[in-house]
Specification:
Structural class: mainly alpha
Number of helices: 11
Helix content: over 70%
Largest sheet: none
Number of strands: 0
Order of helices and strands: HHHHHHHHHHH
Number of domains: 1
Strand content: under 5%
Length: about 270
Amino acid sequence: MTAQTIDIRADTGLRRLYWAVSDALALTKRNLLVWWRVPAFIVFTVVQPVMFTLLFRYVFGGAISVGDHGSYVDYLMPGIIGQTAAFGSIGTAIALGLEAQKGIIDRFRSMPMSRSAVLAGRLIADVGRMLVTIGIIIGVGYAVGFRFHQGVGSAIAMVALAALFGLAICSVSAFIGLAIKDEESIQAFGLIWLFPVTFVSSAFVPIQSMPGWLQAFANNQPMTAVINTLRYLAVGPTPGATTLEPHLWQSLAWLFGILVVFGSLAVRTYRRLS
């Protein structure tokens, strides 16, 4: 009798997991179809990182010295990829904020579907969108002189880490979108905190070129840890990333912490929506 009860409970747990995954994938498909059917959204998603790539490569690149870091384009591209993953999260905040404001999330919650599917479907779709954008940016980078120096395995690892970083930042944006819900406020606040984190890092210039009071912040924030790891995986050892392990573990610690904290806050805010 006890064994039979355990089997039933196990089967119920597996069924719940199956339907949770199925519902999340159904909403992922919905979110991707919306993106696919609005070509302007695809264009604007890709235009910004391409514009940053060309501006830094051809406008600012001649004035920026990276010293022993190698060519500027090899130094630049991991930073652009990290920035693309971070800035792509704005779409997560805006989409969830609009759906909460218009009552779409309430409609989903009234349906016989997994409660986790709305957030999971949005995050999976946005990470997929992010991977497509990163692929395009790498193609643009190759057109302007960027090359991977560590082989195919390291290149794949770099893209995977960038996607994980994007997922972590999307969890922050999901919380912001559900908490604020107003589109204009989300856009303003999303950029306010992303710009200093992105630019006061090792993304575009060596940290040693910054004033001393900025270096303390730049050296101890998640963007720098992730960018240094991406750069090592892309081009090998540099003065900012002489070995992989310390930067990799530091990056993973930051990303795990962000996912736990802001993922929990996003879920809690989602549950409190009325």
